[in-house]
Amino acid sequence: MQTHAEQVKKARKEKLRAAQLAYLDFVERERELTPTEIARLIERDPSTLTRFKNKAGYNGTLSPVIIEMIEQASGIPAPAEAHGKRARSAHIQEVPSAPPQGFSEHEGEPYTAPLGDPMANLVTAAVAGRIHVAPWTLKVRALEDEGYMPGDILIVDLNAQPEAGDIVVAQLYDFERPGRTKTVFRLYHPPFLVGASKDDDGRVPKLIDNTVGIKGVVEVAIRRPRRQRV
Fold this sequence. Notes:
Blueprint: H1 4-31, H2 35-41, H3 47-54, H4 64-74, H5 85-93, E1 108-110, H6 120-127, E2 133-138, E3 153-157, E4 167-172, E5 182-189, E6 192-194, H7 200-203, E7 206-207, E8 212-222
Antiparallel strand pairs: 1-2, 2-3, 3-8, 4-5, 4-8, 5-6, 6-7
């Protein structure tokens, strides 16, 4: 017979799993992807998602890291319920502007259209149903000397192979603290990623090694009217 604590834990796990399944279904429909294709986009074994979704009797959940990787690859944010412990921790802290504990501040975030956002139609046209393309909102001035400003919506091709001079979105990994992975936007000048601004951090070249993962190439930027920029 289960104790009350065990029943509560089981109920939480079932709620988390249901939220994650619903989120995965939504990503599949919106991006017209199979679980196997999503797993390949996030560079994980296909069984990571196919087992989670289809294996009879399996009642496991996805880790917060996997959920975040799906968010970044698809450009579709997950609801708080799908993040589990990480989301509850962030909610308890009640600091919406701060990154969840254990995660670095990112230089961009997947674009989601607020209700009535006049930019939504432009973004939809730029993506045009292409499953390998995702919109991101730039949050920093790391590329201002190239004409990219905070608030710009960047259309990122996740399948493109970068060439020298391209602007790329990359992840900087910290293998000693995996939760400290940071998303950055930089100029690709192999063997370095470089910024294009007066910001000291952005100007420091970053050697492209096993701590750097290039995730996509920026195709185009959509500029908000001045009064709407963040």
